């Protein structure tokens, strides 16, 4: 049994970290409440001004009766469906799905209540309430998530984590948690089955002791989470005993199933005779979904070409006036299944730049496949500006319409890059390359080669239309921030 003083010390330390779970939930509830109230006022104003579904009845008197119950019912559905659950915040699409599900339920309950009570709620108001309210809630959650990520990266709202497992396993997980600081999991150290006496793992993570003393170590360190990785225990009985011991500490227990870079949508719990099995679905890029993606690409790209037509003309004129050379530059790239195609770009380098590669200085390691230099002397003055805002890539909209590319996908590589791929990296070529993707919205050229590959492979294995929409939304921020663009 744990010593009483140790238990009190650990409990007090964990109490200081509860804000990491409580603050996002409370903030989400407050933001949702405010936005639903705003949507209610906007829907009433819109119904009055637009006169949608105009019918007899006093709109103001009806709303004075129905407004509070409507707001309360919507909030009850958000709370009842778990839209404020602490584990939802910060990652994945589950948070947005809960908001959508709760909103659908709220619309259904409001409609049923009005029908049963014969309450003359304005149809125009009802329509506008959800047309305005649902997007507002989603935008609010997106803004809240972005704020939460910023706070976590700055060291706030962190949960303290102890990793349990073999040195190799805990090093791998520690690397992910350190890289993705927005997750808010601060690694204190590791407990390993048989410490070698060096005091740290091969990658420098502090070893706090053996797994046999996990309970005592967690208590004394004030950890909030224990994450069990591969090799932490040797049997189900040993795992069960470890969980029993940790029950007294009040920490959260996470178990890593040795799966990395797998979207939560592909993993389902499937209990069988007391075994908590995880069922892993195959990649979702099936033929029907690829057809849906293609329809989406053509539709959205056509609208973007029309919207950006003035920008395309202005940039083309600036490039031409800059040095009198060609406006467009066509570069051979490798597409889906290794098929080459010509990527269209506004020319941002001097004419004949391909013959001047000897003057470049690669900012990455010598074994880095990507080759991009922030101070490349071949870039023209106009080219430097259009690269900063990714305007040089706008002609690739026509590559999308032609079917060589998609709006979202892995970066289209050069043949020289593909020649250096190992077996795993070739999986990037199983889907159409994209104008934007996880690589582009996560730092672009500032990322290491390892991170670039990891993001592209994650996209290939976990593609979904929801993810594409989120990437497109993040692309706007990435272009404006200009991080890694040169």
UniProtKB/TrEMBL annotation:
Keyword Cell inner membrane: no
Top-level taxonomic group: Bacteria
Single GO MF annotation: phosphotransferase activity, for other substituted phosphate groups
UniProt keyword annotations, A-Z: Membrane, Transferase, Transmembrane, Transmembrane helix
Subcellular compartments: Membrane
Membrane-spanning parts: 21-45, 65-86, 98-118, 124-144, 295-319
One term under GO cellular component: membrane
Residue ranges occupied by any Bacterial sugar transferase domain in the UniProt entry: 293-480
Entry-linked Pfam families: Bac_transf, CoA_binding_3
Membrane disposition: Multi-pass membrane protein
Major location category of this protein: membrane
Stated family: Belongs to the bacterial sugar transferase family.
Protein name: Undecaprenyl-phosphate galactose phosphotransferase WbaP/exopolysaccharide biosynthesis polyprenyl glycosylphosphotransferase
Organism: Knoellia remsis
């Amino acid at each position: 049994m744990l010593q009483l003083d140790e238990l009190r010390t650990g409990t007090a330390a964990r109490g200081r970290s509860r804000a990491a779970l409580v603050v996002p939930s409370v903030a989400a509830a407050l933001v949702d409440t405010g936005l639903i109230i705003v949507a209610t006022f906007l829907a009433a104003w819109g119904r009055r001004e637009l006169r949608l579904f105009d019918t007899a009845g006093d709109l103001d008197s009806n709303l004075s009766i129905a407004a509070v119950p409507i707001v309360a019912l919507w909030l009850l559905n958000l709370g009842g469906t778990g839209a404020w659950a602490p584990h939802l915040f910060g990652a994945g699409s589950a948070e947005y799905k809960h908001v959508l599900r709760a909103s659908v339920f709220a619309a259904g309950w409001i409609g049923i209540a009005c029908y049963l009570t014969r309450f003359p709620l304005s149809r125009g108001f009802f329509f506008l309430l959800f047309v305005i309210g649902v997007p507002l809630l989603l935008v609010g959650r997106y803004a809240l998530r972005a704020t939460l990520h910023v706070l976590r990266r700055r060291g706030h709202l962190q949960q303290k984590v102890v990793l349990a497992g073999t040195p190799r396993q805990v090093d791998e997980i520690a690397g992910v948690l350190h890289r993705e600081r927005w997750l808010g999991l601060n690694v204190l150290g590791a407990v390993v089955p048989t410490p070698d006496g060096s005091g740290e793992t091969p990658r420098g993570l502090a070893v706090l002791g053996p797994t046999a003393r996990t309970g005592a170590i967690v208590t004394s360190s004030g950890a909030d989470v224990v994450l069990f990785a591969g090799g932490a225990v040797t049997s189900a009985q040993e795992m069960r005993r470890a969980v029993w011991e940790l029950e007294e500490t009040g920490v959260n227990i996470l178990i890593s199933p040795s799966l990395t870079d797998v979207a939560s949508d592909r993993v389902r719990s499937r209990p069988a005779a007391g075994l908590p099995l995880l069922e892993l679905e195959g990649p979702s890029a099936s033929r029907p979904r690829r057809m849906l993606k293609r329809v989406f690409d053509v539709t959205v790209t056509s609208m973007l070409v029309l919207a950006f037509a003035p920008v395309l003309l202005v940039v083309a004129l600036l490039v031409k006036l800059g040095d009198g050379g060609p406006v467009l530059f066509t570069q051979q790239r490798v597409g889906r299944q290794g098929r080459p195609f010509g990527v269209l770009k506004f020319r941002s380098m001097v004419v004949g730049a391909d013959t001047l590669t000897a003057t470049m200085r690669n900012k990455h390691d010598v074994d880095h496949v990507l080759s991009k230099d922030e101070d490349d002397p071949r870039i023209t003055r106009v080219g430097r500006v259009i690269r900063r805002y990714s305007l040089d890539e706008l002609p690739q909209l026509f590559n999308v319409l032609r079917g060589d590319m998609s709006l979202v996908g892995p970066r289209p590589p050069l043949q020289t890059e593909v020649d250096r791929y190992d077996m795993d990296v070739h999986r990037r070529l199983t889907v159409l390359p994209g104008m934007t993707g996880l690589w582009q919205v996560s730092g672009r050229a500032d990322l290491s080669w390892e991170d670039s590959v990891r993001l592209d492979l994650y996209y290939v294995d976990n593609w979904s239309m929801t993810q594409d929409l989120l990437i497109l939304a993040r692309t706007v921020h990435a272009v404006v921030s200009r991080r890694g663009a040169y």
